[in-house]
UniProtKB/TrEMBL annotation:
Keywords: Membrane
A Pfam family the protein falls into: Erf4
Lineage: Eukaryota, Metazoa, Ecdysozoa, Arthropoda, Crustacea
Protein known as: EOG090X0FHK
Superkingdom of the organism of origin: Eukaryota
Location in or out of the cell: Membrane
Cellular component terms per the entry's GO annotation: membrane
Length: 207
């Protein structure tokens, strides 16, 4: 329970913050005639209005932070992986996104992502096969085309994710991005889709 002399939110004395859920002695302020402000928090409207508080002040609205949930990771589910990038991502709807986005919209996003991978990964595999055959003769230079193609595929995915974020997911408090993580079963690195939960802005905070 928050008690305020002005019946308004404002600033909180740092000593009072330490006494949360602890009864506070009755104040000596003139407005506290019946002692009803003696229990709980003493919320002060401003430091100038109540100069008898000489300590540090804490802005309640500034220090309030909404807990951020852990991001949802969508791993590759394909049968071919080139430089850590799978040719298909898992399309199963995560339970952590229930109530945040419709399963149909999530499925459409994954279909567009897998469509990009379906077009680019087979070409990358062919260049990787050719590069490995000629690797000894070219001293490794034959692998440069597949490296550039893999980088181009990642840029295409990042561009698609930026479009998805700007058109839909930023309004829902979500953010998609491509991230590099270690595999659970080995020390190898793979690319996964991370869906991060964006904290809400404090639009009701006064200027």
């Amino acid at each position: 329970m928050l008690y305020s002399y002005q019946n308004s939110n404002g600033f909180l004395h740092r000593d009072t913050v330490k006494m949360i859920w602890t009864p506070v002695p009755n104040t000596n302020h003139a407005s506290d005639k019946d002692g009803k402000y003696g229990m709980g928090w003493g919320v002060i409207l401003s430091q100038n209005n109540y100069p008898f508080y000489n300590g540090e002040w804490v802005d309640l609205l500034t220090h309030h932070r909404e807990p951020v949930r852990d991001p949802v990771a969508i791993r590759g589910a394909g049968n071919v992986t080139v430089f850590g990038l799978s040719n298909r991502f898992d399309t199963e709807f995560p339970s952590a996104l229930t109530g945040k986005v419709a399963p149909e919209e999530f499925s459409e996003t994954l279909q567009r992502i897998n469509s990009v991978l379906k077009k680019t990964l087979p070409v990358n595999v062919k260049w990787l096969f050719c590069g490995c055959i000629c690797c000894c003769c070219t001293l490794g230079c034959s692998l440069w085309p597949v490296v550039c193609l893999s980088k181009r595929t990642r840029h295409a995915l990042e561009k698609l994710l930026d479009w998805e974020n700007s058109h839909l997911y930023s309004k829902l408090g979500l953010h998609w991005r491509l991230s590099k993580q270690r595999c659970d079963s080995s020390a190898m690195v793979e690319y996964v889709l991370l869906i991060e939960f964006v904290p809400r802005l404090q639009i009701h905070r006064p200027d």
